[in-house]
Fold each of these.
Amino acid sequence: MSKTVSFTAMKDGTREEYALLARLKKLFLALTADRVLDECAARMR
């Protein structure tokens, strides 16, 4: 499966492309706290 989507308008996305975006969003959200804490730690240095 491709790691990119080919649509530029939401109405043109395929089921597979939306499934990819859903997986990527889930991963992004799962790592948000780590990114925030890393940024805070970097600013404290």
Amino acid sequence: MKHVFTILAAVLLSTAVFAQKEVPYVLTPVADNPSTPTRYQGSTGTCWCHAGISFLESELIRRGKGTFDLSEMFLVRHNYENRFFQNFMLHGKGNLSQGGHPHQVMRLVAWYGVMPEEVYHGINYDSKGHNHKEFNGRIKALGAEIAESRVYDAAKRAELEAMLDSHLGPLPEFDAKGYAESIGLTEKYLDEIVNFTSFSHYPFYRPFSLEVKDNWDGGQYMNVPLDEFIAIIDHALKHGYTVIWSGDTNAGFDRRHEMAINPLPEYFDEAMKFERIWPEIEVTQENRQHDFETFRTLDQHSMHITGLCKDQNGNYFYKTKESAFKEGSDNGGFMYMSRSFTMMRGLSIMVHKKGVPKEIRKKCGIK
């Protein structure tokens, strides 16, 4: 028998149908932190920026700065400029794809500031939503042409800017750097955002550059044991902080049911029918490492975790904003990831340093 997917509203002492999906999980909230409405990335690979902006908007709420709707495409534009130059310096061997990692959002805000969405939508074409498929192809073609010419002068830079203007729209006269500082997104604050990962091919409690293609700028991730990796997520959520999760969304990730689970292989097909709860894989440092080194866990997606729930069997699930949902999702654009899935398929997390347990901060040398 199927049960309606519900969340028990503890504050209201009532039960409410939440996702309108028939799955066997009954989720009770443990922590539910404020967030802005999910905004959809459309036909783009900009999940890294949508997750990063969503995270910053929740941080502004947490810090008492107010509720904001900030522009993703303003930062996507500058990201293209930066990686375009890197591609030139690497003789066309750089990464001009749409993907990235959330730490790049923090760098971009520190360098360029931020704009409200109403000031820069980033859509200068006939579409209600974002679509970068054809645009990214033109970016790559121009990048290859310039790399081959070995000349990136003012004229070539102007050609790139004209391409960005034609698709994303010209940049308005707006003090983005001053605006960022005025709402609390200062460089000092942005330096307090930290990245973690958990893999055994590097020493623990030291940072390293995660070997995935979209970490094209060599971002550093503090390496911690797996039990501490998940402990950081739980501690942050229970203490009012939110977390960005980046990882693989292939096996076990089901947008139709708005769930992500990690069933034992022998139960996988049955489990993905969501007719009953099946046992999930016990994740260890060893099997997580194995799946990373055999490319079963890939760098595919970034999402913003805002809450923590328990199912009727006491298993944890993570309430996660999913920008790749189609607009109008009846669940507000949220997924629920099991703890096993979150640990096995998560490559990295990003969080404010005060959301990290003190003993872990001390081991990592984070003050």
Amino acid sequence: MKNKKGMTVVELIVSFSLVLVIAVFLFQLVLNLKKLYDNSIVKTELLNKQSIISNEINKKFRSKTISSTTSCGTNCYQFNYTDNSNDKLVVDYDNNTIEFGTYKTELPKDSYLKNVTVDVVKTATLQSYVDGSILIVDIPIYNDNFKDQNFGIRVLSQFAFDNALPEVTLVYNFDYTGSYQTFIVPETGRYKLEVWGAQGGNHSANAHGGYGGYSYGTINLSKGTTIYIYVGSQGQSVNVVSTYSSYAFGGGGRSYTGSQSGVACAGGGGASDIRISQNSLYSRVLVAGGGGGACAWSSESSYSTIGGAGGGTSGGPATTYKGSGQSNGTGGSISSPGTTGTITALSGSFGQGGSASSSSGGGGGGGWYGGSAGRTNGAGGGGGSGYVYNSSTYTYCPTGCTLNSSYYLTDAHTYLGTSSFIQPNGTTAVGKTGNGYARITYLGS
């Protein structure tokens, strides 16, 4: 059957379908062209910023004579010149900004910074009485729209001195990422290692997770050695009945929120540690314990506990804030895990905090040995222990230990999370709150 213009229904349907296909194709083409246009704008902006930042740094390095490079805080590098002036390179990973001297810029949308490094390499020179060096500043910049393409800045500046190399302090910072991180030792020399454990999960301001501990030590390392860094995460809080929390990265144990209405329990915080040569619990030379998870009824009027602090040679036990009858978790020690009464299922283990089961309780913190989980009436978890590997403590590294005397730390200490110690931002406070942290500082050859 034909319409008044002589087209059959089938022809109309075919024509309409063809028009629709062409319209969809054109629409998709317009979208793709727009994306290409937008990407070209982003790429141009990235290349412009790359050029400007490189020129700013090179211009200053060409007009000045570098005397030393020092740390000026977290993700802050200070370049000192022989005329007693200096410039700072400040990298803000959260806000994606780069600042050098008086110049500051923010990266375009969907761009991000990777680990910035400032390194000094000693080079051979034609004159035997001169020590030549190359200062390398590497600022990797990536964008989600251009996979694996580095728009970063790499500046090389050669300088020479009649005497020895200038004193250089290079700082490498490691925040929580949810996975282990690796560090290849760039230069043979002495390094300071620092780790901060994560806090246990919170219920409230009063019934809070135990604070993470802090450990540090110095060690001689050879160029090319692989270091594995684990930065613990804060324990998870759960307020849904009959539910387990997640394990925290770094060995934090799970909590269990039972069937009682209004109860909320939190998991233990993860330990932060540094491993040398092998990625194994038995290769840890430095550990900062994570805090135990808190647990409480919603009003805190009946039962509530504070998670045990992590770190130190023995992690802290959970403490009752209100109520009675709780079987609180205890802290792991340098030689054994935390335990909760005679219930072995709640105990911690080597490198792992204990997990609650079948009755409301907070998870144990991760550590050299993990703290145990709490049980009944809103009981909290114990904190995990800290550890420093040296000539006095090596016997506590159990069977399977991969370490030897060449990895002994000196000037080493581990602090419990109830102590006051230096924080990653340079301030001093009691315990580490939130996620953990790690830092490696090159002290010289």
